[in-house]
Amino acid sequence: RLSSLDGLTGIANRRQFDETLQSEWDRAARENAQLSLILIDIDYFKPFNDTYGHQGGDDCLQKVAKTLESCVSRPGDFVARYGGEEFVVVLPATDEAGATGLAERFRSAIQELQIPHEASAVSDIVTISAGIACTVPGSELSPERFLQLTDQALYEAKERGRDRVVCTSEIAN
Hints:
Blueprint: H1 14-31, E1 35-42, H2 45-71, E2 78-83, E3 86-92, H3 96-112, E4 128-135, H4 143-159, E5 165-167
Parallel strand pairs: 4-5
Antiparallel strand pairs: 1-3, 1-4, 2-3
């Protein structure tokens, strides 16, 4: 069990995420069901760490992780620390509207924490950006490519000014 948990935040780690994404991908493909993925990044986390120190950064990561976990309500929804200041959420049987609604709930819940962030160029409190991808798995897309598309949506959220949610369907091809 310890090998599947992130030591700092206590939520699932990257290894557990990789396994979960593959198993949920396979299940959704078998059932011809929707699968959504949300990739979340704490905005301007490096300046946060530089300003408040590593202990402040660790506290922030722990609070964000706990908050993200508290926002998911279905047993199959899966939250993990992806690495650094990034988190990922796997949402089986969830369409774009459902994933977007949850991502906005994450964003609001993090703002409600009111964690001071004087080094942010976006807000005086900690904010997050989120990228979303949704699909019915098939032969034309792999889990790795699905994750890349989610990462592209997250990058677009950052490019558009951070503290926002962007879905792959919003990105011009």
